[in-house]
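Troubleshooting log. The previous structure file for this entry was overwritten by mistake, so regenerating from the original sequence record. Sequence copied from the archived sheet and checked twice against the printout by T.R.
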Amino acid sequence: MPANEVEPRYSPGQVNSPKGISAKLAARPMLARVAPFFIYAFLTAFQGKLGPDSKYWIYAVKTLLGAWVLLLVLPWVVEVKWKISWEAVLVGIGVCVFWIGLDPYYPRLGELFQKLGFSGSAPKPDRLGDLWNPFVQYGASVNLARFFVVVRIVGSTVIVPPIEELFYRSFLYRYLVRVDFTNVPLGRFDVSAFVITSVLFGISHGEWLAGILCGFAYQGLVCWKGRLGDAITAHAITNFLLGIWIVWKGAWQFW
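Regenerated output below.
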C-alpha cells in the first residue's frame, strides 16, 4: 500500500458483516479477484474426502458459496460483465470440440506424472469409483442423481466461468505484467504472461493439454476484445456443451 494511503480500520463486527466485507473488497482489488477462486478451490480439495457422497454435496455447497462470494465481489470488479459476441460463441464451441476430440490422444495429468515417475501411487483417473457419476452413487434414487447433474451443469456454466476468468485472466495475467495490475489494460498482450497463465490454467485440469490450449483461446479472446466478458461467455458455452455431452454420451471422465 502506498505511504500516503491509510488502511481503513474496522471493528470485528464490521469486518464480519456483509458491509464490512464489501469495504475490504473495495480497498483490496487483489482480494476481490483472488478470494472467490481460492474459496472454491479449497472446497474442491475436500470433494470425496469426507465419504463417497461428499464429491456431490460439497459440489452443491461450493456452487452456492461461489454464487454468494461472486455477489459480494461483483460491485468491485467492473470487468466481470458477460458479453455475447460471435467470437465468444465460436471460441466456446471450438474449445469444447477440441477438449473432447483430443482426449484419446494424450495422457491425463495423473497418468503423465506416473509415466514420469513422480506419482507412482496415484490412482488412475478413469477408475469407475473415481468418476463423478451420481447415477452410480445414487442408482436407487434417480431423482437425486438428476439433481446433482443439474447442479453440476449450472455450477460449471454460471459460477465457474466468472470465478476462473476473474482469477486467471483479470488478476494473474495482468499481475505477471505489472504488480499494480489494475493499471494494465485487459487488451494488453504480453508473451510471458500469456504463456504462464495459460499453462497454469491448463495444468489445473486433468486434461492438461486441452486446458493449456483452452487457456490460449480464452486469454487470446480477452486480449483481442479488450474485455473479460467475452471469455466468460466462451467459458460458459464450453462448460455447458461439455456437460450436455457428458450426460448424453456417459463420458463421465470429463467430470
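Residues 30-254 form one domain. Archived copy saved in two places this time.
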